Amino acid sequence: IDGSEFSARQGITAIAGSSIFSSSFVSETEGLDSESGGGIVGSDFYAKQGYAAIEVADQFDGSVVETLEEIELTATWINGSTFVSEDGYIDLESTVGDIVGGSATAKTDEVIVMSAGSIVGLTVDAATAATLDAGAEIDNTAVVAGLEITADAGTGISGSSFTSELGQLISITAATGNIAGTLANAKAGAVTITAAEGELDAVDVTALLDITATAGDAIFASSFVSEEGNLIITSGSDIVGSDFYAKLGTATFNDGTVTGQFDGNVVVTLGDILVEATWINGSTLVSEAGLVDIEATAGDIVAGSATSKASSVTATAFGNIDGLVVD
């Protein structure tokens, strides 16, 4: 089907044994069903009062799908396409390769994006939940959802942002790679961010409630801010050059899982601060109303300061305590 236009008051069923190129399909009152034995390229699908169900044996590229109801699309690759549902969900799946570029907007419902490869440069706007699952990377992707967000990558996540307006949880997981240059903001809930075997590097996490951050390797140059909850931070290696703020809660670091150094960090809380690390160097720790308890399990505590404005400070080192200011 090439360079063709189809319009119907009711539904449209379009089946091509090969590909669909530069064509238009418009249903006024019902849905669109389309199957292609090849790819679909540069085509438009409009279901003004219905749904769109599209199955593609090859790639779906540079096309537009707009509906009142749900959108379901399966293709080997999905590239540079726009999906908008006024009153239904959006479910996109690439079965062989990546989902690259484009946008998915569900104005009253959820967006689900599944990729056998990577998800790259996609913009997602979901009124309710957003779910992203990539067999490889999630890169340069922006997600805004009214409720929960779940993002799982088989390798790493980079240059992406995840914002939940009202949801109880943002969950971000990289199975084998790093999470780098990524932002998460749970305006009404909590954030769980996990690089199971990699680093958290230059991540910026903000939440109303608890933040749980876990790195199989190190945490570098990152920021974690909880407005009302606690910070639970675990690193398989060092924690370096990062800021931690629990405005109404506590901060706990490497509780029982000491493996690396704690260097050049800032921790400010209302409640208790508990830090366990092999060495603790040049860090600032301030609790407004709780205790500060720091322990270097293999080496020294060097420089920095520990301040408890309403309770006690305990500093324990396997080696020396040198240049630490305690108040």
Whole-number mean pLDDT: 97
Shape: elongated
β-strand amount: over 45%
Oligomeric state of the chains present here: single chain
Question: Would you tell me the structural class of the helices and strands?
Answer: mainly beta
Query: Which blocks of ≥5 consecutive residues have pLDDT under 50?
Result: none
Q: Name the helicity range.
A: under 10%
Give the number of DSSP strands.
Answer: 49
- Biggest sheet features: 17 strands, parallel
- Rg estimate, integer Å: 25 Å
Distance between the termini: 77 Å
The total of helices stands at 0
Structure description:
The chain has 327 residues and is mostly beta strands. It has no helices and 49 strands. The protein has a 17-stranded parallel β-sheet, with no helix packed on it. A 16-stranded parallel β-sheet has the order 2-5-8-11-14-17-20-23-26-29-32-35-38-41-44-47, with no helix packed on it. Strands 3-6-9-12-15-18-21-24-27-30-33-36-39-42-45-48 form a 16-stranded parallel β-sheet, with no helix packed on it. The model has no long low-confidence stretch (mean pLDDT 97).
